[in-house]
Amino acid sequence: MGDYQVRDLSALADEALAALEEGGRPGFPLIEGRVLAVQVTPERGTSSDIAIGVAALPSGFSTPDHTHRAEEIATVLRGSGSITIEGTTIDVSPGSVVVTPPYAHHVTTAGPDGPMVVFWMYAPAGSEQRWLAQDRD
Q1: 50: closest CA among 38, 65, 64, 36?
Q2: Full-model pTM
């Protein structure tokens, strides 16, 4: 698995926001309207069964309704918005931590006052693979 993985959340948030303004950059690609930066994944040999990363959503942006087999922990680093899980909307702001159960339908939405940055973790890993392929393109 390699060395220990250490990330600075404030620096990740800053870089994700800068990438969002630029329309993406290497390691912080613009995918489906938002920046998605996978930081740790078994695919890259940086973990054995968890994926972590950061997403920057532009003001008013909503992810498509989706599910995955992984539990997801989302921590809001910047901005505000909501996370809707199985029809229940949870307002979020910096410091909010939301756990989404496996296979639960969910949508993340940035508020109208500016972009929202979310640090996310998936376990087991696997859902992030679709973004890794787009990051290589």
Answers
A1: 38
A2: 0.89
